[in-house]
Amino acid sequence: MREWTIKRVLVHEEGDERLVVTTGLHHLQGNERPYFSTTADLYVGRRQEPEACGCLHKEVIKAFPKLKPLVDIHLADDRGHPMHALANAVYWIEQGHVQHLASHLIIDEAAAQAMIEDFTGEAKRHADEAAEREGDVAPGCDAVWKRAHHAALKQLMQETFDNSLYAMWDQLAKQALQLLTNLPTEE
Description:
By secondary structure, this protein is an alpha+beta fold. The protein folds into two domains: 84 residues, no CATH class; 87 residues. 51% of the residues lie in helices and 20% in strands. The protein is built from six helices and four strands; from the N terminus they run ββββαααααα. A hairpin with a 2-residue loop joins β1 and β2. α3 packs antiparallel against α4, α3 packs across α6 and α4 crosses α5. The relative contact order is 0.15.
């Protein structure tokens, strides 16, 4: 069951297109906290069914540039913490995917690239040491090395959350919530 804590619907019409944006903070039954969501339905002509729907974030920002802070924090909880923040961040670092990591953590791509390079190097050193302690002859190829590498990435990422990202996300959530509460229900 969905319950919206705050919900705003904005409509933008241009030519024969109508973009209906739903943004807000809502809570799904079973989730610990409510989360930010910004989605849209794009109608063309007189059609009753949308031509496109869902995370039409480029279209939303084009029609309503002021909604960018809400788009940026899409699927983050009311504290600004991204969904499955730690697990997803570690995954994107392991995959070396700069754009996904940047988008997920709400940071710029240069910071994401530096994070991947720094954390991967540090985790590799940690895993090599663990493999050496275990007497492994082929670092990088066994379960001991992989577990140690993953654990080191997780620890490095958690320290980054504690040292800087939690505070930044909190600020983003406060700004998004203020924007959301000040939005009219239709434009």
